[in-house]
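Budget justification aside, the reviewers requested a transparent look at the raw inputs and outputs of the sequence design task funded under Objective 1. We therefore reproduce one unedited record. The lines immediately below are the structure tokens for a 113-residue chain.
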């Protein structure tokens, strides 16, 4: 599976990673590496997951790892947008609360994804 990661800025001007594809064993390290780079710049990490079509337990682990890295730096991980599938996984796993910032906002057009 593949994950495309693009750096951007969110509406508040924070560094954001726009994720497209799948977060799994093959792609998790790329997400962690990119996320840590953003966190090392001192701000929160915003993730746009509106076009993530799959996330497995290793992907969940990557999000937990990034949340811990952010917490150690006194900041957080924000989910600005998530697909319906990702929203369900985050809610089921409790990560929607554990990320501790913005609750995932489902993309209205993502229901069929």
């Amino acid at each position: 599976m593949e994950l495309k990661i693009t750096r951007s800025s969110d509406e508040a001007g924070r560094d954001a990673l726009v994720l497209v594809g799948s977060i799994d064993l093959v792609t998790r390290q790329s997400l962690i590496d990119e996320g840590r780079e953003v966190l090392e710049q001192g701000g929160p990490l915003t993730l746009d997951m509106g076009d993530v079509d799959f996330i497995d337990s290793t992907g969940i682990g990557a999000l937990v790892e990034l949340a811990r890295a952010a917490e150690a730096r006194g900041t957080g991980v924000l989910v600005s947008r998530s697909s319906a599938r990702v929203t369900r996984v985050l809610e089921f796993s409790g990560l929607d609360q554990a990320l501790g910032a913005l609750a995932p906002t489902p993309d209205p057009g993502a229901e069929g994804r």
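Strands lie at 3-9, 15-23, 45-55, 77-82. Residues 45 and 77 are 5 Å apart (CA to CA). Computational costs for records of this kind are itemized in the attached budget.
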